[in-house]
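Researcher: For the record, we're logging two predictions in this thread. I'll number them. Prediction 1 follows.
Model: Prediction 1, sequence and structure:
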Amino acid sequence: MGLKFKMRYGQIRKYDVANGPGIRTSIFFTGCPFKCKGCFNEKYQSFSSGNLWTKSEENKLFEYLSSNHISGLSVLGGEPLAQGDELLGLLKRVKEKTGKSVWLWSGFEFEQLDSNQLKILEYVDVLVDGLFVVEKKDLKLKFRGSSNQRVIDLKKTRDCSKIVIWDGIKPGQ
């Protein structure tokens, strides 16, 4: 039986230098339960916005990721962890076919995640977690919008059984 797609996305950026280290390809999924005040992707909050994810988009994604110039995939939203098993399957295929790093941004805090969301994160290298809080907005922060958000190295976190901040982030960044 073929894949059935219910995920929706707002855009795929072939080249993105703002969302993770190096030159990355980014997917912005739609649908978000949080609706943070001041969200920079407000148009992606509705679960009915954007386009259905299809095999065509997946093929395009793998074409982009096959470039030696692309260091990895960044997954943003909306709320990517609201995409469920389809995102799990996609990220598993990305890791198996490319071996490139995967970064994911979520309004959920790591400690809040359920078992299904944690399965998705098995295929993610770095998680930027936490709601965007406009009162804590800081344009000098690296790879996140507000100071309450964390950039978590998931491999080290799994190895140590405690939250480990990605070592590319220095205190105050």
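Researcher: Logged. Prediction 2.
Model: Prediction 2, sequence and structure:
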Amino acid sequence: MRHGIGYRKLNKTGEHRKALFKNMLNSLIKYEQIVTTLPKAKELKPQIDKVITIGKKNILSNKKRLFSKLQDKRSVTKVFEELSKRYSSRKGGYSRVLKAGYRTGDDAPMAVIELVDRNPEAKKVDKPKKVEKKEDEKKSDQKVASK
């Protein structure tokens, strides 16, 4: 009998797997939707659901517990301030895994893992606004022309 098969090893060492999921959790909290391989997404789903469940009870010990798992202050704050309020009436199932075809190099099955009721603006967190760049270019052109 095969007992104790609780997770996929993903052909990685324990330390590598732990770091991988920490980074994926931080990215999922930040952008609220990420694209990855199907086995990784299926392993990530219970972890993100547990993180959000921990964040729903706003006490110091839970903040410390999440910080030890995520090691990113911004992610912990977002879980406690935004996500816990968004999912306060929901008892579970905060994320979903959608199959997204196959990757073109190695034919690996791909999936999109996203938070339910996600904010579509969260994907644009790091992208600079194009309007600001055009204004900066105009200002630099004016400086060059005045010299």
